[in-house]
Structures are given as structure tokens and as C-alpha cells.
Amino acid sequence: MTTADFPEWVRAHQLRVEEALDQLLPAPTLAPSRLHEAMRYAVLGGGKRMRPLLTFAAGELAQAKPERVAAAAAAVELIHAYSLVHDDLPCMDNDVLRRGKATCHIAYDEATALLVGDSLQSLAFQVLADPGLAADPSQQLQMVRTLAMAAGSRGMAGGQAIDLASTGRELSLPEVEFMHVHKTGAMVRAAVLIGAACGAALDPNAVSRLDRYAKFSGLAFQVVDDLLDVQADTATLGKTAGKDAAQNKPTYVSLLGVARARELAHELRAEALEALGPLGAGAQRLRELIDFIVVRTH
Amino acid sequence: MTTADFPEWVRAHQLRVEEALDQLLPAPTLAPSRLHEAMRYAVLGGGKRMRPLLTFAAGELAQAKPERVAAAAAAVELIHAYSLVHDDLPCMDNDVLRRGKATCHIAYDEATALLVGDSLQSLAFQVLADPGLAADPSQQLQMVRTLAMAAGSRGMAGGQAIDLASTGRELSLPEVEFMHVHKTGAMVRAAVLIGAACGAALDPNAVSRLDRYAKFSGLAFQVVDDLLDVQADTATLGKTAGKDAAQNKPTYVSLLGVARARELAHELRAEALEALGPLGAGAQRLRELIDFIVVRTH
After folding, report:
1. Which one of A89, A125, A169 makes the best mutation probe of the B interface by having the most chain B beta carbons within 10 Å?
2. What is the ipTM of this complex?
3. Taking the CB of the first residue and of the last residue of chain A, which one, N or C, has fewer CB atoms within 10 A?
């Protein structure tokens, strides 16, 4: 399924979003410099950039101009980065390791980490409202709305609230799925739809196929995350391994066991590919990315 | 300066923004319901609504449709409300009382308060990107950008970082002003400019006058806040009085003394009125609001 140049495509686009983020984040020489330094610490130089890669791949399908997509991908990653900084805080997951280095509140302090997350969220919307990211401004306002809804209480932040409320409780499989559709799924869908919105308008059928692709990809990502939490070590993950079991969190693995969870990841992969069905060569990177999501070691 | 119907105008527009917020906040029956309940707790039923009133008054100057301005005013207030929830957290000001009731993390818990703030920020941008808030979508994208920049690291959140860094340090008057231009000034300016942007395009000279008005009003607001922190009691303020001195924070009062700070508030009031100079009857509510800001007991 994966073409020979896919690893190179991944590297090139990880670099492209890194460059965009580097340019968009305020320089550490600007006041307040400690906050700006901490924002750069939390965002730059790490991460798989899975969401931006999905944005780029969907942008390719819609034949969007690469420079537009880079800014949109950066906006999506800024929201993701803010959520990691806040999730790691002592009142949430209380974690000290992220992307192989100290979490933001450990490297700086809690108050700074709180403001880093808050500021990264604002910056995401500032970037996404920059003129010319879509063919017309109405389309671009829709992109802002898509990102805001995916990030908010009925999306990612809501998923985090459901996650908190479920720690130590027994959840059913549908309840775990409901949590992840919010916690990771909403932003994965936004990453794909925002990438597509940077280009030529797709017909509603294609948009609905992309949305299904994104939904299955997001769930597959989460199932693999749960597997890696059990199976990989902290050094490989770059974050604390075994955390779910330690915190008595319901996961796909705790509910289904390792073997069935692994099967489920492959079923979701197949569903995601099926959703893309007739979208042709333009969807090749999206097809390849599902393997990037399912077959990974960290 | 104040017309007889001004108190009625204030009450009517406080009610209007309350109704808009009530409609825009997700119902507590929607999942995750505890988060939605906490968001409503943090936003509804309190506050002077000073920023929304400025948005309404600037909207009147630009002859904007009232229903447009109500949504824009709500977006501005959602950002303000999120900042209060996060500022009250233990890692920031660690406060237990706000608007006469328990702060969000006391009434709920820290993790919920963190997510409430995060979700209110997302909702602000979702509301401001709703179609039809400005005469054309490009103008509306500019409003989104204005709000994002005012909220972020070079605006309100940055001001909070400067505030944290200055606690217990000696600051000069220009440094205190620099802090407040960010911490409160940026959002006061955004409130005015976003209100004006809901209506007919104003000439650049009028916009620059509004911006000066907003700058002086924001500083006047802060000087009065510092005075009230010293002079009013907790019951009247609805938040903990005497906090600045207890936390050894540099304020206008600690730098200038009560008498000179009071003079300064009146000088800033005069500057704000002067800035509005030739804007005529349309600016009447803006003129009256400066008294609402300077002559207040909480």
C-alpha cells in the first residue's frame, strides 16, 4: 500500500510544519520572553505531527496550495500542543515526560504552563484567521468554526472531561468509543476537513467520505495508543508507559485484551481505507497515513 | 455627562449579553454535562459586563445591527470569563471568591476549571466565526484575528505572565503600565474595535480615535481596580479585597498613593473623552461608559 517515497513525504512535511510553527510562534526575544520561550519549548522539535500530516494529505486531495496548507496544519498542531501542555498538568494527568523531555510545567512552572496552553490556543485561531488561507473568506470562517468546535467542550476538551470522569470506573466499549470520538477523534477529523478546505471545493460525497476516513483513523490511532501504553517502554514512547493501568483508566486493551485490540486496529484501518474507496490517486497519502497510524512503535 | 436613560441602557444591555451567553453556552443536559454545567456556572449570572457594554456602545457608533453585536459581545465576554477561571486557579492567584460566589475550581474541581477555561476560549472563537456577524466575511476574519491577538501571549495572557513575574518585585510606573496595557488593555481595545467592526466601516481616523479611547479607558479601569482593592471590602467587591498588598503586587496605588492614583483615574477619563472628541452623538454611550468605569464601587 505504501509507495517508496512515502517516508520521504512524511519527513518533508514534518519539516514543513516545523518551519511554519517556528515562524508563527513569537520570538523569545519578544516580551514576555519567558512565556514565548516556554511556548516554543512546548511546540517545537518533537512529536509525530500526525494531525498536520493528515491536513497536508487532505490538502493534496483538494489540490490546495502548499503554503496555505502549512499554515492550516500549524494551526491544528497548535491546538494539539496546547492540549498536551494542559493534560500534563498536576491537576490532570500529572506527567513529567513528553516527547522525550520534561513536560512544560516541569521545565518551567505550573502557572507558565497554564498560560502557554492558553496562548497556544489563541495563536491557533489567529493563524487560521490570517487572510488567504482558503479560496474565499466564508470558507475560511467555516475552517475557524470547525477548529473551534473540534477543540471545545463538545470535542477534544469535552473528551478530556469524560476521560477524567471515567478514571477508576468501569466503562462499556461504546462508552470508551464515545470518549475517544471526542478526545482524539474530533481533532483528527478537523485536521482532515481543514486540510481539504484549503483547496478546491470537494463534492459533498467526497467530504462525507473524508469525514468517515478521519473517524476510523482517529479511533485506530487511539486503539494503537492504548496498545503501545501496555507494550512499549517509556524510552521508545517518549512519554510515561503503563500509565493507563497505573491510573486504572478504561482502555481498549483493558476492555478487549491485547489480541482483540490489535485485531480492532486492523479492522478500523480497513474501514478507513474503504471509506476513501473511489477517491483515486489524490487520496494516496491519506491511504498511506493510515499505516503510519496503525503500524508505529511510538 | 450621563443622560437620564443611561442606567436603563446599561441594564438592558447587561441583560442582552446574558441572554446571548445563555443561548450560546451548551445546555447542561448535553454530554459532558458536568463540564457544561461548570461553564455556565463560570459565565452566567454575574459580572459588570464592562467589556460587552463597550462592544455594544462601539456598535451603536457604527450603527451595527443589535443582534450581530450581541454575539460579538458574548464572544468577548467568553474570553474574559475564561481568563477569570484560569487566573483564580491555585497555581495562579489561588482565589476562592469571584463575583460573590465560590470560584469555579472550588465549586467543582481544578481539572474541571482548567477545562472550563479552555472550552470557553474555544467557544468564543466559534461564536465569533458564526456567519453574518459582520457586513462581509473578510471583515469578520479580521474580528477573529483581533480577538485572538488580544487574548494571546502578546495581549491578555502575556500580561498575566508579566504580572506573575512581577509579584514581589519593584516595578516602575512605565513597567506597571506595560503590564496593564497587556493584561486588561488588550481585551478592552478588542471589545471596542470588535463592536465597531460589526457595523458600517468607520473612517481610519475614527478607528484610531476609538483605539485611543479604549486604551485610556482600559488603564482608567485598572487604576480604579487598584484603588478598590485597597478601599472596598470583600462583600462589596464580590472578590477578595486587599489581595494586591497581601501578595506584594506592584499597583498604581502602591506606586503613587491613593490620592495621586485617584487623580490619575480622572486624568485618564479626560483623555478618553478627549479622544472621542468629534465623534458626535453616536459616541454618547462610549462617553457615558467611561464614568461607569471610573465612578464605581465594585
Report:
1. A125
2. 0.96
3. N
